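Support request, please re-run this one:
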Amino acid sequence: MNDRKVRRRRRSSNGFVDILNGLLTLLVIGLLVAGGIVLYGASQFYGEGPLTEETTFRVEAGSGLSSIGPRLEEQGLITNQYIFQAGSRLANIEGTIKQGDFRIPAGASMADILTELIKGDPIRYAVVIPEGWTSWEAVQRLNADSNITGEISTLPPEGSILPGSYDYVPGDTRQSVLDKMQAAMDTELAAIWEARQPDLPIETPEQLLVLASIVEKETGVASERPQVAAVFVNRLREGMRLQSDPTIIYGITKGQSTLGRGLRRSEIEAKTPYNTYQIDGLPPTPIANPGVDALKAVANPDDHDYLYFVAKGASPREGHVFAETYAEHQENVARYREIQDEAEAARKALEDAEAAEADAPATE
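Re-run finished. Output below.
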């Protein structure tokens, strides 16, 4: 009887030990499997990626791991979106994913890609508006850039855009980029107006902007702008008309094309709001978008007594010659016309020589 009880207790003890051993075995196997999965995931997350050449990856505004992972896998930058998402949450990389386009090098690991999207610099995109462009030209450039979206419903006022380079992120709207350009002009104009000479014959920032646009179109030589600005300031003080050809041209083209020829006598004599040969003072609006240097030149022009200027040579890069009296100016104009005639004669001679060479019989 006692032997049977002892045997039962031994069988019961052995069964418990067997169950415990089984559970421990399963736990060890589970740990090994889990460790293997972790090691595999880590090797995939930190190991060399499948990308064979550098590529660009775009992160849209508001994108997160759940939307980026599938796109990375679809585009062949990673092998498994779920490993990327899990590894990204476990990796100790502080920061948030940025918006923009990123260069991903060949062989980049998932960890490398995540680091680039959080800490890297997006590819720089920018719209550049040269000094002296009209608002119509600026909008044409914005419309031509396929990396930005939307439409500009209304042509911005002439002179409201500050020329320069404006960064954007692909997907930004054209209107948002234009807003930056106009805000920059508002800020710069206000600061330059505050720092102007106190005795200028200009009463408002808007008038400064108009005159700066004329200076911008009259000379492409940066060092001349204060001189040219002073000529127009002197004329305003004397009650003389500005007599600026670019104002007539703007009245004809409205800044939406180039004239492509010289002004006709009838155009110079026509009384229009933009013909400063026929009207007193300034035209009603700017004739272009002036840059900072032109604005500063009008706010702080040179101190001289010149009232006239004319081009120095056939090329605009040669600048201008200045005169205090009309007689001096006429002499300068006569010299300029001689230079023009000489340049035209040289051009014609070159064309004739090229035509003669083209017509000459071939020699063996």
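Residues 2-46 form the longest helix (45 residues). The first strand starts at residue 55 and ends at 59.
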